[in-house]
Structure formats: C-alpha cells, structure tokens
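Throughout our pipeline, every protein is held as a single compact record rather than as scattered files. Such a record has a labelled line for the sequence and another for the backbone structure tokens. The remainder of this section carries one protein's record, kept here as part of the documentation:
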Amino acid sequence: MSVQVETLRKEFDVPEGVEVAVNDVSFEIGGDEFFTLVGPSGCGKTTTLRCIGGLETPTSGSVKFDGQNVTDVPPEKREVGMMFQNIALYPHMTVEENIAYPLKIRHVGDDEKHQRAKEAAEVMEVGELLQKYPGELSGGQRQRVALARTIVMDPTVFLMDEPLSDLDAKLKVRIRKEVQRIHKRLRVPFVYVTHDQEEAMSMSDKIAVMNNGDIEQVGTPKDLYNSPTNEFVASFIGNPTINLVDGETNYDDNNANVTAAGMEFSFDESTFHHTSSGSAIRLGFRPEHVSLEREQQTNAIEGTISILEPLGNTDLATVDSDVGELRAVIPAEGEGGFVFDEGDTVWVTPNPDRLYLFDADTGELLTRGAIS
C-alpha cells in the first residue's frame, strides 16, 4: 500500500476570514516507508495527517491509497490505524477489552476478537497484562497497550500524531524502539507526526519538513542534515542547532567571495545560485563542524566561553561573540575535566568544507563547501 498526497489544501473559517492550514502540499509514501511530518507547532502537520486519515476533509487536492482516490471515503472504511498524543484507554475496561475495542465496534465475533487481541498483546509484550486495568499499569505499559489496540485491526496504513510527547526521555527511547520494531514487522506505511527533530531523524526513512502550511523539503534524514535546501531546514534539523552569521558576497574571475564576521571564504561560482555583488548572505556552520583554538586564527571568530555542557565523550561549548552566540561540539578531556573552562577566550574556527551559504532575504541555499 502506497500513499499519495496531491496538492492538498485545507482552509478553516476564522473570525478574521480564512486561515490556510495546509497549502497545496504533495508527497508520496512508499509501501513500507516510515514517513515523518516534522515542524514547529501550527505548521500544518497534524491537519495533513488528519486529512490522510479521513478525519478532515480537504478544501482541495486529493489523498490516494495505491492510486485509488479515498479523499471522500469515511475514516472507518480506510483501514487505517490511528494513535494520538492522548492514548485514551478506557479505565473501566481490562487491557484485553481495550485492545479488542476496535474489533467490537466492527462486530467481530468473540472468539476471533479474543484471539486477535491476544496476538496483538503478545506482539507488544503485554500478554500477561490482559486482565489488568489501565490504572494498574505504568506509563510504558499503557503506551504498549495503546499500540496493541492500533495494530489489532491489521491496518494498511499507520497514522501516529505525537504519540510520545507526554513521556519522559528514557521511556520515549524505549517506546520509539517499539514503534520501529512494529514497523519492521508489519512493513506497511507509517505516517508519523512530531515536532521533535531528533525523534524524526532517528526513526524515519523519509521526512517532510513543514513550515506555515508548506513543505520546505522532503528527504532522508541524511539528505536533510547534509543538504538542506534552505536556512529553515538547516536550522530545524540538527541538534545543537546550526550557527548562522551575517555577511555579503562579491565576485571575481570564477569565484564567489564571501565576507562574514571578519572571515573570508571563496566558493566555486559554477555551483553558486547567483546573487548580485554586495548581496546580503548568511553563513552557516554546524557546531559539530568547528574547532575551538586558544590562539588567534585566520577565518575564525573570537569569543568567550559562557557555558560548557558535558555530553559524554564530547562537550557543548556556548561562546559569546560580537556576532552573537555560537555553539561548538568539542572533544571532552575525560576524567571529569574540560579541555576548556568557562570564561576562556577562544577562536571559533569553522571547517571550510562544511560551510553553508544562504540568501539573507529568501533563506534559499546558495551553495555549500568553500574552496578556500
């Protein structure tokens, strides 16, 4: 089963007029892909998911399953499994009754209902809890029961709307693995909504980054991290977030020369999306792609370390500079000590091969990777 979303648009009437929640978005999800919609709150990702599930009717555009138009098909006839942030187990029902409830409302016979609920519970490793009530379960167990209730219908498409957002960090990681395990077992399309880019990066085959109702970019996690199409994607994907400093471009011979924060880099003009000479740009470099030096360097930014955060085998340094706050991931010294100390004066030195250049007005990626 593949899913095709074609020029999907969803408008809502509001007191001020019309609000466009989803603005003519299109994408396709392969038959066994884990596809994530990620973006800030209010960007349209949940509305898009609800249109796929039939809980919202698009203003225009279509949703197709294996090429068949299901835009006007009611949700109960789409054979989709849905799981939301509020898992909403019925407190007066046993675990088995909760899991089997979707089968009950479809009038599945008692024997089959019991067998399928038991099988779904065993997949989620809650088979021993079938006669317990939700109030007797831990948060992780309730989440597994909710997943079992979703898979009991043997859906052709899974839709999940921020199902892990209310869990603590440790439990998130565990349930994330459970969701991935289910996907690998069932090999059907999973459409997952989250605002957590780390969650999206760790789970997905493909990611659609949304902003203001539009899709900024669709790609694999590595595509989005290494080759963002614009400043928004570069800033949203990656943790810690990318460093950005203002600058301008000038041209000579076959090179585009960039000056930013006292640094000068040249880029191959043949790979450059042109701006006019003197145009404002933003130079981006990820915290993982810089070094900190104690001595003055060429093409580096002077600053003072304000915060050091241990991350295990690396430390995250926050550096205050004349061009704003910069971040650098640096090796940890080990034995509980830091290579640097808070208050140290340092020079933040970007790796020229890993630079990104964005148009300051449009945010469009102009080029990446300086030649000198």
User: Anything to note?
Assistant: Residues 3-231 form a domain with the Rossmann fold fold (CATH 3.40.50.300).
